[in-house]
Amino acid sequence: MQPSGRLVVVSNRIADPRKPAAGGLAVALGEALAKSGGLWFGWSGAVDEAGAPGEGRLQTRQAGSVTLATVDLCRQDHDSYYLGYSNSVLWPVFHCRLDLANLETGDIAGYRRVNRMMARKLLPLLQGDDVIWIHDYHLIPLAAELRALGCRQRMGFFLHIPVPPPVILAAIPQHQWLMRSLFAYDLVGLQSETDVSHFDRYVQAEADAKPVAEHQYRAFGATVRAQAFPIGIDVAEFERLGQGAEAVEIYQNMREEYARRRLLLGIDRLDYSKGIPQRVRAFRNMLSRYPDTHSDATLIMIASPSRDTVHAYADLRQELEGLCGATNGDYGELDWMPVRYIHRMVARKRVPGLCRAAVVGLVTPLRDGMNLVAKEYVVAQDPDDPGVLVLSRFAGAAEQLKDALLVNPYDTEGMADAMYRALNMPLEERQRRHRALLANVREFDVHWWRGRFLQALAETNADADEAAR
Ligand code: ADQ
């Protein structure tokens, strides 16, 4: 069963699903929106310097059959809602980094103000039988704000980042309010079973919520269904990109340039959750303990700039530059630079070619909701001569991709050993692992994810239905 009404997607940022740079998620959501003649609502990405707090300017435009509706944020709202509460409180705490969380600021007011404003702007655009799908940690209280304005439509929420263990979550001064907000939804989608178990333990301990049926919890006078829907990639789209001229060209260039060398690759946003310095330390440790890797193994790290006005990100950049420089200084030769670090985004069309050129894919976050690079790396490989995925056990993807070499990113020696093992893995083992990984990535792709979520949302015995009767 799929919901019959129009689909409304709400996310912090929106993308034109018809643009090639949009990426798998935008394309997958765009498809579902196009089918129902849907609406996509979110922040425009622009800061209106002349705007007033809580007053976003609404703009709408058509992208085929999809309506894109955006609001601008004024400087104060952007700083407190986006940089502040979302990215300096929720992001670090949900990634278990209490040491980086700024829990004493007053940014909660801006977070609530923007969610309330978004609800006010969205409400008049809604139709009676709409099905509303809200995304990610920026917008946790949006359903509660919409309900307070009388919205009775079915609403689902998907959290793209991990749920931390209850004892960490409870460090947020407003944790009760935040989690109560989730009970305004009919369905809460999480990335992994670990996330569901953390949610389950939290609501039982802090809200005395009891599971009333499979995946159903009752607390705060409401019932919510909470379940894992591990997100996937658009495999067909990524394969198409892989056959494109730009992917083939970068693959050939890399093979030529590094003809005598073996490449290990990391592609990330430069974020402290991604375990990037830990990865360089492990690589350095491998160089120190396995001299046969010298003048051979080369680590390519492509880390795109992200949230660089938040302090923790600027510190990370400095640390990484120091580590890469030191490793190259200590181990490099005139004709071999062990680490190539590029602080930039690479064009999406090149990503499959880069992944294919690397004999080892390093996806080693300290915590990650899912991590789509792990899945992209698998799809990009030559099935006859595939590379090896080294994957952190703390990425949501590790619950599905059990045939990767799973590592603990805090264990420098263990990770160095895994890198070395990956570099030297026999062909037959690489093929066997790759077959199993690819089958999993193919089966649980982004279309499966979208379909399962929307089906579950359609099946919820929503209070919304009762209220409407
Ligand atoms: P992110 O933390 O952004 O997403 P991820 O899942 O790794 O992380 O997706 C990143 C995407 O951006 C991938 O498609 C990747 O190829 C691309 N990308 C990253 N760095 C790049 C670079 N330097 N150049 C070019 N492309 C780059 C959040 C959660 C994740 C969750 C996703 C989806 O943090 O855990 O998997 O949402 O739910």
Please give a quick description of this structure.
With 469 residues, the protein is an alpha/beta fold. The protein is built from 17 helices and 16 strands.
Explain this structure to me?
- The chain is α/β, with parallel strands linked by helices.
- Helices cover 44% and strands 20% of the residues.
- It has 17 helices and 16 strands.
- The chain has helices at 24-36, 75-94, 107-122, 142-148, 166-169, 175-182, 193-207, 235-243, 245-257, 276-289, 311-331, 351-357, 372-380, 412-423, 427-443, 446-459, 463-468; strands spanning 7-13, 39-48, 58-63, 66-74, 131-135, 154-158, 187-190, 210-213, 216-219, 222-228, 262-269, 297-304, 339-342, 360-363, 388-392, 405-407.
- The strands form two sheets. The protein has a ten-stranded mixed beta sheet, sandwiched between helices.
- Residues 463-469 have low confidence and may be disordered.
- The structure holds adenosine-5'-diphosphate-glucose.
- Adenosine-5'-diphosphate-glucose binds at residues 23, 160-161, 231, 267-269, 302-304, 345-346, 351, 368-373, 376.
The computed structural class is: alpha/beta
- Estimate the strand proportion: 15-25%
Bound molecules: adenosine-5'-diphosphate-glucose
Shape: globular
What is the number of beta strands?
Answer: 16
Q: For the largest sheet, list the strands in their spatial order.
A: 3-4-2-1-5-6-7-10-9-8
Gyration radius, to the nearest Å?
23 Å
Main beta sheet, described?
10 strands, mixed
Mean pLDDT: 93
Number of helices: 17
Kindly state the percentage of residues in helix. 40-55%
pLDDT < 50 stretches: 463-469
- State the distance separating the first and last CA atoms: 21 Å
